Fold these 2 entries.
Entry 1:
Amino acid sequence: MVAIRNMNDGTRAAPYLRTDFNLGGLTDLPGWSAGPRGDARAVLSAIKAAGYRGTQGGDPALSRELGLGCTSGGRVNKPGEIAGLAAAWKRAGYEAATLHVGWGHESDAEVDRLVHEIIRASAQEDLPLYIETHRATITQDTWRTVRLVERIPEVRFNADFSHWYSGLEMPYGNWEEKLAFLQPVFERVRFMHARCGNSSHIQVALDHPSMEKALGHFREMWTRSMAGFIKTAGPGDFLSFNPELLAPAINYAQTFRQSDGTYREASDRWLDALALTRLAEACFQEGQRRQA
């Protein structure tokens, strides 16, 4: 079985980090946010002007017209579902897709069947399909995810480490031991969703006092993942980094009661996304140094 391939731009460029933007981060932005407004063309143009080189979600044709990459995402619950999805994404012109897979109650045999189907569909459509580390999926805990890698080393991941960091309270215990245990996962990360929380809350304003320690932890996980990508990447390969700071309506962004009785988001998700992107660029440079 061949490993799920890296994203690649078809050039001879050295492996690089492509900073993209998950369009879910613009949902229900408050009026005081500095984030982009307008129709799809205006929004994508503003995203490009901010320095991003692609998006997750949106119209691939419009993205190409504006000189942006475009990826997709979805959910696979049962065997037999991925082939049609992958074919549709390929026809639409997406470069890759990230997947929530299963609900977390599957046996190892059921997990393996789903993952084998994903790898086959990825090869069949020549479309990278990256399984996301996410709550309520087959990767909801670190133990089962590492065991999955041992059984099927060809799997590749979209890393959204916030689900583990808060959901498994990763800072509680031996941090270095946990990093070492997760090294097989870090080495297989090829796409990233950027969200940072503390030990109990999955998405926290970056200037919150609890985040100084947490951001240091996320930086290390991101750097190890980027170094793992760099270690084996070839010409034209890139890792897609996507801030994904989601809205209060789905219980991600925290809100706080104001004196007038209304609730206000704790920070501007657009500005926090820009800050996470700068942090990722620094992590990639550190990953390059570690592999030099």
Note: The domain at 7-33+72-291 is CATH 3.20.20 (TIM Barrel).
Entry 2:
Amino acid sequence: MAALPRLALLPGEPGGIGPELVVKLAQRALPASLLCFGDPDHLINTALALRLPLSCEPLTAAALDQPLPAHRPGRLTVMPFPHPNLPVAGTACPDNAGSLFNALEAATDACLAGQLDGLITGPLQKASLNADRPFTGLTEWLMQRAGSDDVVMMLANPDLRVALLTTHLPLRNVPDAITGERLHSRLGILHRALRQDFGIASPRIAVLGLNPHAGEDGLLGDEELQVITPALEKLRADGMDLIGPLPADTAFLPQRLHEFDAVFAMYHDQGLPVLKHGGFEQAVNISLGLPFVRVAVDHGTALDRAGQGNADAGSLIAATETAIRMANTRRNAA
């Protein structure tokens, strides 16, 4: 039998809903070896509060070169990273940032060393992490640590994949960020990932324009004529199947979406509201372009809901199932 994918699981902000989601995920049967990088005492206390069974089996870094046990419901294999301060549900604690960074570094380095196939990450509180060291976001942090030249954010639910050219930019800065070089790099990453991680032999990608009606032949803006269309023509000459630039207001019509394997949007709020409306609970955040699989939940720490026991684990379950499929696809293609 083929070896199960080996995946790191990081609960995220200990005062948020991440630990609760991990405990709920742990109750499920999963075809993978999961290794949680976190505080086992905090996870067990969270399980007790939820009245769910959980045992944590410790693992040392030296054991990463050995076979990992398959995940079993109600049990977690844990590499311990204790929090120096007792987490309080609903309260972010910057003093625990050091243990979170240590866990992130250990999990990422194990992926880079080939000991693990990828990361599944819960929600982080950027303000807390910035109290320890400068931190703009986990995607950027992973790109730097992995030495990757570029990374693409793609959100996905069971019916739709939306990748982004730009992410968290003020809207007034987006046009200047749309360059031929960036389009070439990020569409290339998306195309390769659809083949490598999703097993799509000939990906078909819809590319959105920037302006209303995709510029309407320059009447409503010329970014499509001056930058986007020339870049797409060059990429088509390289063999990519790219449709567009398309008007964003009609590209997401259901009768059109079945024609595409992914939609490539120019900016964050151009594509993501549609995806989240169509299935927020099942949406996941995927980092394309890293040398390992990385899938995250598509929501925040929800401090206001932590400790109540009613957090929906749907996104973490979907992230785990997505990471398993991606890891298996990469292995089969190798």
Note: The chain has a mean pLDDT of 95.
